[in-house]
Design a protein that fits this description.
Elements: E1 2-18, E2 23-32, E3 38-44, H1 56-61, H2 74-92, E4 98-113, E5 124-132, H3 135-150
Parallel strand pairs: 3-5
Antiparallel strand pairs: 1-2, 1-4, 2-3, 4-5
C-alpha cells in the first residue's frame, strides 16, 4: 500500500454509509494534482469503530452507482459516486462536519481513472485511510463520530 501526503483544503464529515446497520464513519475529501484533477477521499480511522467501511470503492458499490453512472465500468461507477459524494459535501457544506486547511496523509488503497473524462472536476479518484497530521485536528475529526452516533 502506498502512502501519499499533501496539504490543502480538507472537508471532514460523518457519513451514515449503511442504513440497515446504522454504520457510520468519518469521511474526508480533498484534491491533488493540476487544478485538483484527483479527488482524494479517506476514511478517518476511529478506534473500535466496527462500522468503518474499509475499502471505499467497495462501499461505493453498495450504494447502487450503476443506477446513476450505468454507462461507466463498475470501477468508474464507484469512482464517480465517490467524487460526487466528496464534491457535494464541499459544495453544500458537510452536515455536522467542518472544513480546514491542513496537512494530511493517506494510506492509499487505490486510484481509479474515470473512464469517460472529467466528472465533478476530477479525472481520477484516490481512496484510502486518511490521517490529519495535526493531532488536534485529527481528534476533532474523530469526535465527529461520537457526536453523530449520539444524535441518533
Amino acid at each position: 500500500m502506498q502512502e501519499i501526503t499533501g496539504r490543502g483544503r480538507v472537508t471532514v464529515w460523518p457519513l451514515l454509509h449503511d442504513w440497515p446497520t446504522s454504520a457510520r464513519c468519518i469521511l474526508t475529501y480533498t484534491t491533488t494534482g493540476h487544478f485538483g484533477d484527483t479527488a482524494v477521499l479517506g476514511v478517518v480511522p476511529v478506534a473500535d469503530n466496527e462500522g468503518e467501511p474499509g475499502d471505499l470503492f467497495a462501499m461505493a458499490g453498495r450504494h447502487g452507482p450503476e443506477h446513476l453512472y450505468g454507462s461507466l465500468t463498475p470501477d468508474g461507477q464507484r469512482a464517480a459516486w465517490l467524487a460526487c459524494t466528496g464534491f457535494s459535501a464541499r459544495l453544500m457544506g458537510a452536515p455536522k462536519g467542518f472544513e480546514i486547511t491542513a496537512e494530511w496523509s493517506l494510506d492509499m488503497a487505490r486510484t481509479v481513472t474515470l473512464p469517460k473524462g472529467a466528472m465533478y472536476g476530477h479525472l481520477k479518484v484516490t481512496a484510502g485511510r486518511m490521517r490529519l497530521v495535526d493531532d488536534e485536528l485529527h481528534a476533532r475529526a474523530v469526535a465527529l463520530l461520537e457526536d453523530a452516533q449520539a444524535s441518533v
